[in-house]
Each structure stands twice: as structure tokens, then as C-alpha cells.
Amino acid sequence: MTKSKASVCTPDQQRELLRFMLMAREFDTAMLRLYRQGKAFGGVYSQLGNEAVSVGSAYALDRRNDVLFPMHRNIGGHFVFGQSLDQLMLNHLARNGSQMRGTDGTGHYADPALRIYGNVSHLGAMIPVAAGFSLADKLRGITTVSMTYIGDGGAQVGEVHEALNFASVHKLPLILIIENNQYAYSTPNSMEFACENLSDRAIGYGMHGVTIDGTDVELVYATCVEAVDRARRGDGPTLIETRTMRMRGHAEHDDFAYVPKELLEQWAKKDPVETYIALLDKRKVMSRDEATVLREQILADMIAAIDRALEQPWPNAEEGLKNVFMSEQVGG
Predict the structure, then answer these.
(1) Which structural domain range is residue 256 located in?
(2) Per residue in 74-101, pLDDT tens?
(3) Residue ranges of the chain whose pLDDT lies below 70
(4) Residue 101: closest CA among 310, 302, 321, 325
(5) Distance CA 141, CA 243 (A)
(6) What is this structure's pTM?
């Protein structure tokens, strides 16, 4: 597994990476509370422990020309691509102005203006769509890097293998991030696959693959910058396995009692947010006190966005009938 590299980020970039990770962390914390209050709609899928993956990977893309296909644990990537707190709160609280019109609260929406498309509930199905986006632009003579994600469990789905083979054959500028957070719901890695690293499969597709520490945001960023450069050169797709730990259940209805407490304690020491705060303090890029002030400002902005969303009315009931299709059975 690839370990930390020397920083390739400027001090301003380092501070921005921390800000996005703190936004992701505080969003998660807010959603956990709202779920318990019965105000959040749909499942609440925590990204605690995965912030460095979603932020570091999306940060490597060109937000004007590339495209992001985030998964349900990639809110950090939404923030990197410019999604507002207000819009996310309207979505997750199912209020008027939601991009899902109040019919869903778990992120199944597209925001073409921000080049965000996600996510397909049958998660393996998202990789062919991301590959198709890059293929369509390639046929127009445009190089558009598509970045998408899958979990360790979803990586076993047939559509994932089909899409990666297709992307490799056509040398598409596709980057797949496998978020190996140790459990596919309650199924541990040992019951999911027999290879040592999920990135070992890359050679079979004829593409570049690497496994990295997914708690190191700068390592994630640097690895994805290399993958983006490779894609732009026409060298095809990249498979990046990030090793992390899902520090909550599959969703908030799941008490994750199947995870050994010792394992959670081990990964808690590698908390991507807290370890990065300590690193920036050591580098004298941002002190702990400055990080605390930043966190408090983000939290205040989060609370204000929640209050604004809760003041909005519910969508009209007719919104629930849009895009719903029924086929009539014809027969004798």
C-alpha cells in the first residue's frame, strides 16, 4: 500500500482541504442529529472516516471541465465542486426547492451546472454511466475526466467489471475510487474477495491500479492528480483503492455491532480530520486554535442553513407523481 508522499499542496490548498473536510464532518454530525429528530428524509449514510477520500479525490479534478459521480458517502466532493449548504439541506430535509422535489433525501440528484451526477442506488450501475459520459465527449473530440466511486462490496458487482474492461479497451479518461472501508454492510473483506488488494485486479483490465492510505488527504490528492494527468494524456483509466474504515453503520438504522470495538479504536487513531489538523499545526500552516475557529464558523453556517431549510414549506403533493410511469398490462 502506498504511504504518505511529500506535500504537493501549497499552504492555501492545505487550508482549503481542511475546510472541505471539516464541512463534510460537520454536515455528517448535523445529519445524525436531524435523523434522530425525525427531520432527515431517506437514509443517512455517514462518511465519518472517509472525508479525506471524497475531498482529496474531487480536489484533483478540473471543476469547469471534468465531471463528478459521487456516491452516498461523498458529500465532501459535493462541497469541493461548489454545492451550497442551503441546497444540500433542502435536499436532505425534503423541503421545497429540493433537487429531488422532496421525493428523496439521499443524494440521488444531478446538478449539471456544477457537473455533479449521482448517485445510482444500484451502485455498480454508476460506473458504466461515468464511462459513457467520457466516451460521449471523446467522440466529440473532448477529453472529460469522469471520477466515480464504489465501495468494497459494490466492487464485486458485474457491472463494475464490465465498465472497467470497456473503459480500458477504449482508453477512456475514467477514474474509479474504491472506498475499501472494511465492511460491505455487515460483510467483512475476508468474505468479499480473495485477492490481497482490490487494485490488483487492474492489471487484468489493462489499466493502472494502486492501493493507498485513504485517511491521508494529501496522498489521495497527489495520487488522483497523477491519475488525472494519465487520463488527459490518453493513457486510459485508473483504479485507486483507498483503505479507510466506516466509523458508523451502513446507515444510521444500523448499530454496527458486528464491527469489533478494537478495530474501531485502531482506526479512530487515524481520524483523517484530526490527524490533518495536527499535521497543519506542526507545519505551522494553521494552528489548532485557528482550526477550532474555522470549525465553529462552519458549524454556525451549518446551523443557519438548517434553519433556513426548515422554514421552507413542503413541496406540493403533485411533485410525487412526476416521472412515475405505469405500464398497462394488455392481454385477454
Answers:
(1) 11-313
(2) 999 999 999 999 999 999 998 998 888 8
(3) 3-6, 106, 326-332
(4) 321
(5) 35
(6) 0.93
